[in-house]
Amino acid sequence: MPEPDAPRPAEPARDPDLCGDGARTPFAKAVGELVFPGMTDSRRELYLRIAATYDWTFGLHGRTARAALWHSRRGQHLRFVQLARLFEPDVVRRGRLWRRPRGAVTINDLGCGYGPLFEWLDRRRWLAPEARYIGYDLSERMIESARRTVSDPRAAFYMAGEATEEADYSFASGTFGMKLDVPDPDWELHCGDVLKGLWAQSRRGLAFNMLNIHGRHTRPDDGGLYYADPDHWAAFAERKLGAARVSLLARYSSHDFTVLAWRR
After folding, report:
1. In order of start, what are the domains of the chain with their CATH numbers?
2. 134: nearest Cα among 124, 121, 217
3. Integer CA distances (angstroms), 162 to 1, 13, 80, 179, in order
4. In angstroms, what CA-CA distances link 39 with 13, 44, 91, 93, 223?
5. Distance, CA of 209 to CA of 257 (rounded, Å)
6. What is the predicted pLDDT for the residue at 145?
7. Which of 27-31, 83-87, 95-99, 136-140 comes out lowest in average pLDDT?
8. Which terminus of the chain has a smaller tally of CB atoms within 10 A, N or C?
9. What is the mean pLDDT of residues 168-173?
């Protein structure tokens, strides 16, 4: 895979091939314009397809890690531990224990699902009373479940494909794994655009995870999953996002990796 800043061959301008024929019906287009306004048709159609897929998995599995395509709750929480390392430069240390980040920290969670990251952070007392968490997801059923179950006033959940508010820290966990039938090069362009938008809404730092291409042989794959090169995306955070410091975490699991990026 080429480095993120490697020159690409000249080609005609086009929208990435992000959508299937079923998402191009007049009804789907009309619904998409209402639910996901202000974006290209191809992006809107892709989001409708992803939303429908996760609505379906939620109907099968309910409020469980499997609804978000994690194998288990334990595996889901292992990824949360890696994401929380984004807080380390800004936490209070008391003795040998790390405490929650200082002050009224705000968090964006893009691809929040039914709200498990908020619940995990809250159980571990990582969120101060004045903290604020904003979760975004494409799936209506996921968002409805999060709103019904999480009554904490610090948390808000929105059906959206991008972060609409600025926050101190932003997370994207499991957000980029399912590409459906989108070709890898087009999906990589899509992921890059989403990460640039999320970085623009992040005052202090951004953390995201992806499936690791080096562990692809250990997982079933029907072509609908995106397996990424860890070095490529760590370099993307440094060179394309302009992060002052980047950390690549790839030893906690052979299946995926996490990139942490800080502005200072």
Report:
1. 70-262 (3.40.50.150)
2. 121
3. 26, 24, 20, 17
4. 17, 6, 37, 43, 26
5. 6
6. 95
7. 27-31
8. C
9. 97
> For residues 47 and 160, what is the distance between their CA atoms, to the nearest angstrom?
9
Structural element, H or E, at residue 238: helix 230-239
CA distance 67 to 116: 11
DSSP characters over 45-83? HHHHHHHHHHHHHHHHH-SSGGGGT-S-HHHHHHHHHHH
> How far, in Å, CA of 58 to CA of 13, rounded?
37
- pLDDT, residue 201, reads 98
- Tens digits of residue pLDDT in 214-231: 987 766 666 889 999 999
Q: Which residues contact 201 (CB under 8 A, 6 or more apart)?
A: 108, 163, 164, 165, 166, 167, 170
Q: Which residue type is seen at 212? A: N
Of residues 4 and 128, more confidently modeled: 128
Query: How far apart (Å, rounded) are the C-alpha atoms in residues 237 and 195?
Result: 9
> Are the C-beta atoms of 260 and 249 separated by less than 8 Å?
yes
